[in-house]
Amino acid sequence: MNKFFSKKLSIISFILIPIIFLWHPSWLGFLGVQPYWPLFWLLPWSMMKGSINGLIFGLFLGLILDSLTLDDSFTQIPGLIFCGFLFGRIKLHSDILLGHFRYGLICSFGSFLCGTLYFLQILFINFSDSNYLMLIPSVKNILAEVFLTGFFAPFICSQLLRMFKFSRRKL
Amino acid sequence: MLDIRRISTNRWRHKKKNWILFAIFLFLVFVRISKGSFYKDFYYFISKPFWPGQFQKEIVLESIDQEYLIKLTLLKKDNLRLRRNLSLQESSSSNENISAAVISRKTGSWWRQIILNKGSKDGVEIGNIVIGPGGLLGRVKNTSLFTSSVTLITSPESKLGVWVDRIQINGLMVGLGDDYPSLILYSKDADIKVGDFVSSSPASTLLPPNVPIGIVQSIDETLKSKKTAKISLLAKPQVIDWVQIVKVNI
């Protein structure tokens, strides 16, 4: 049983992402905003498996998360695909401490990218003169998400990366 | 000959891994098309032990009493107006309510939605409205067997016709992705004031009339052709655990 779990750890953690996305723990939030959970999984996965794998699993994550949100007109797929591809090009760093901070910065950048792409879709689809009303709340949402994602990434990404490495070694 | 065989075995379709990835992709497309029903039903079962307790109902009932007082005054006024103007359509009085608990809540960021523990099995239908203690929360956008997903009125996708009772004017309320939706009045002369009460419009095709929504918090008059106002909602989706699903026959 233990062997099964250690082998399938990456898949189990992948399945957990939509559950956390739905759970939306408010005590982890800042200004009502949550960190962008899929990036925490996508970064270590893409760093280990490469760009193409990152791109494919970015698409998979986007498909699942889109199915859980009610906004039919907007999608998270472009942001996640782009992040998956981008993260795959980043190499592991030998300095552990520096690596930790790097995860924070990379995830913050990814979250900014995904948030901006999502906001641009909202702007494009609801193109009207009431758009300016959305500007301030949207910038607040993006910045809060960037901060939280960057804050939690060093803890979660390094743990996930360690676990993925461990499960690969067992294989 | 040997070279040809080697090329043919290296083709992508001969790799088992590619077929597995393709199968996963097809499965996820199915999940996407079914709007995640499978995931939501799975979440229904695993979150069951953590649902809000029964004591919440008492708090909810107290708030509902207050809400009903406001509603009653509005309904009396509305009834009088309708009697004077018989050309208006009468709203149905046989609304059927379903009580439901909130099992997932996304009230921050872009995605403003709640998931309830009642689904198509309990008779919830797409388009039903959801009311919490205080007033309107949103509309049911999607149902699975055990759950229903509600788009909150704070969501950027939400656009509703509303009624400002004091000045007797219709307006459009749009969600902006924060806790305060915006009311747009397409008349520069509208005498809207801070503290005005906003309810659903009698002319709305989506909502029954006179469902309490919120109170005007601040007014922006910088635009030339229209006025906008920030609305503070009476029902707070970020704290409500029990809601009523109302079947509407408009």
Q: Mean of the pLDDT scores of chain A?
A: 81
| Fraction in beta strands of chain A | under 5%
Unreliable stretches of chain A (pLDDT < 50, length at least 5) are none
Mean pLDDT of chain B, to the nearest integer, reads 80
Write down the overall geometry of chain A. Answer: globular
3D shape of chain B: globular
Taking the sheet with the most strands of chain A, its summary is: none
**Most strands sheet of chain B:** 6 strands, antiparallel, barrel
**Domains counted in the coordinates of chain B: how many?**
2
| Structure annotation, total helices of chain A | 7
Question: Could you say which structural class the secondary elements and strand pairing of chain B correspond to?
Answer: alpha+beta
Describe the structure.
The complex is a heterodimer of chains A (171) and B (250). Chain A has 171 residues and is an all-alpha fold. Chain A is built from seven helices and no strands. Chain B folds into two domains: 2-50; 57-250, Thrombin, subunit H (Beta Barrel). Chain B has helices spanning 2-9, 16-33, 37-47, 56-84, and strands spanning 96-106, 113-116, 129-132, 135-143, 148-152, 159-164, 169-174, 182-185, 197-200, 212-220, 227-233, 242-247. In chain B, the strands form two sheets. Chain B has a six-stranded antiparallel barrel. In chain B, strands 6-7-8-11-10-9 form a six-stranded antiparallel β-barrel.
Name the descriptors.
heterodimer, A: 171 residues, mainly alpha, B: 250 residues, Thrombin, subunit H, 6-stranded antiparallel beta barrel, 26% helix
Please render the helix and strand layout as text:
The complex is a heterodimer of chains A (171) and B (250).
Chain A: H1 2-7, H2 9-23, H3 37-49, H4 51-68, H5 77-88, H6 96-125, H7 132-170
Chain B: H1 2-9, H2 16-33, H3 37-47, H4 56-84, E1 96-106, E2 113-116, E3 129-132, E4 135-143, E5 148-152, E6 159-164, E7 169-174, E8 182-185, E9 197-200, E10 212-220, E11 227-233, E12 242-247
Antiparallel strand pairs in B: 1-2, 1-12, 2-5, 3-4, 3-12, 4-5, 6-7, 6-9, 7-8, 8-11, 9-10, 10-11
